[in-house]
Amino acid sequence: MKRRDFFKSALAAGVGLVGASALRPVYASDMMEFKGPEVPDVDPVKVAEHCYSIPAMGPHPTPDNFGMFSNPGFVVTEKGVVVVDTGSSLQIGEMILRQIKKITDQPVVKVINTHFHGDHWLGNHAFVNAYPNVEIYSHQKCIDNLKSGQDKFWFDFMQQNTNNKITGTVITLPNKTFAGGETFEVGGVKFKIHHFGKVHTDSDISVEVSTDKVMYMGDMVMRRIANMEDGSFRGSIDALSQVAEMDIDTFIPMHGTPDDVKLINEGREFMETIYTNVEELYDEGLSDFEMKPKIMEKPFMKDVASQWPGYEDTLGKFIVVAIKEVEQAMFA
Ligand SMILES: [Zn+2]
Known about the structure:
It is built from ten helices and twelve strands. The protein is of the alpha/beta class. It has a domain at 35-262: Ribonuclease Z/Hydroxyacylglutathione hydrolase-like (Metallo-beta-lactamase, Chain A, 4-Layer Sandwich). Residues 13-26 have low confidence and may be disordered. Bound molecules: zinc ion.
């Protein structure tokens, strides 16, 4: 990020918060040091022998939670640490590094970004600061999306939603790629990377820690209703059906809490309930707002999904995306 852009975002914050007059004493030379506040420590949760997850401070990015609304993960081995997702900012990345230090003196040797949404990679900056040669991996499509404007979009999104608390974060893209299917070992701990095509985005990878029978799921499943804009219902149903058959004891979503295969089955049932009902109601000629109450009456929605954060506000958007996918499938 260019210094000019920092200055512009700082200006935007100043105008919003305290009025333009407060900006006069600020000079460009001061802006080089300008950085949003530190994120308070959040204790990591040990999920399995080598696997940790740092719980989100809330379901959505706000000024109060500094944009810490996803669960970064890390895997501790005797020969280094593998980090899965780096949070929404430099400051969150630095907080993750402090939590890792509480558990091990080993360096971070690999960082993996599960997809291109900003709460999963904007913290990369902190890891490059701490370990200049660190390998940062994602699917190639993650890099492609970021290079075609999603980088700036997500930086601005986090700035707006946190009152510019991520100021100082420099956009830091992955420098290595995984296609899915790779296996590797760090300090005797075995890993496998999975890619199922278009699921939550076209760039999702999940990180299996085979030694612990754990899988970091990215956003392919979550007990929360958020962003389906870049995803596919049919892709999600297909991917989660495959995941449910795998030899995994614990699934770690990047939003919500870890669980066994029940998490995967619930995620699939949610996608299926929406998609199959939208298909049916579409054939009957209903519009999205007519579909919504009918879908909300379905037992799974009433009993399970309605408890998830974001349900009331976001279900309608999911229905709109499902309608688009039904229409695309007709002409495919
Ligand atoms: Zn996401």
